[in-house]
From TrEMBL:
Its main location: cytoplasm. It catalyses: L-serine = pyruvate + NH4(+). It comes from Pseudomonas inefficax. Pathway: Carbohydrate biosynthesis; gluconeogenesis. One of its GO terms (molecular function) is threonine deaminase activity. It is found in: Cytoplasm. Belongs to the serine/threonine dehydratase family. Residues 5-288 form the Tryptophan synthase beta chain-like PALP domain. Its cofactor is pyridoxal 5'-phosphate. One of its GO terms (cellular component) is cytoplasm. This is L-serine ammonia-lyase.
Amino acid sequence: MTLHIHTPLIESRPLSLAAGSNVWLKLDALQPCGSFKLRGVGHACEVHHARGARHFVSSSGGNAGLAVAYAGRKLGVPVTVVVPETTTDRAKDLLRLEGAKVVVHGSSWQEANALAQTLVGPDDAFIHPFDDPLLWAGHASLVDEVAEAGMKPDAVVLSVGGGGLLSGVVEGLQRNGWGDVPVLAVETEGAASLHAAMQAGHSVELERIASVATSLGAKRVADQALVCVQQHPVHSHLVSDRAALEACERFLLDHRVLVEPACGAALALAYAPGALAQYQNVLVVVCGGATATLEQIQAWLQQVD
Ligand SMILES: *Cc1c(COP(=O)(O)O)cnc(C)c1O
């Protein structure tokens, strides 16, 4: 028994026609709390629960916090999520819907996270949103499911925030003997922390995040993301906020699934004519995201260049 579900793997006719390759979708937007995060977070929470943790603490107002709240409810472990004042009412409502205690503190994530750290007692577990080997091991199950389905892709497209998904997918590719399958790592231009690190050859802290893809907003990627880049073929791609938002709208029409711009970034690469032309079969990780509404996406489209 795992907390995450096996998600559908489908061939997308609209995306295949747009890309000129066979595009396969791993629909992790259909995880019970709306994103792939449940794979890694669920695994981490199960391990901590088995070790006797009595309380889970998170400082993510996004999909990681939601996954912790969901996992805690399922395991019967109380959850506290500390979020900054900038967190939307929708995100707070979703967290409370999962039974989490929501504490609002500080004007930035740094301040919320600092308070969260003080709440972690000896019998508690702090669940990081992207930088933890337990998370990567859990995220790797996504590739196991594709391998079980008998589909070996020629490339994998995914979004990168702090690099947890990237680290997990690379772990999954390696453990299935697919070390030759390249990963196309997509970020929006205003949240390009992996791109900056790959250019510099070492981890870099961005001065600021300037993107509607809030779930990609890690100023610095996990060190493991750079290890992945050294040990596995990883190609960095950037898309505009507009392209990510338009991909969300188009994907909603094509597949009737609403995703966040963070996921739209990966989809935008598949919708960009010719971007995947050199690959015959491409796996796109539809990582999902529960915090954006259609109204929000349409409002952002009015605002971006
Ligand atoms: C967390 C998240 C990402 C980025 O994942 P990282 O592990 O931080 O790289 C992308 N899309 C969605 C919807 C997310 O919730």
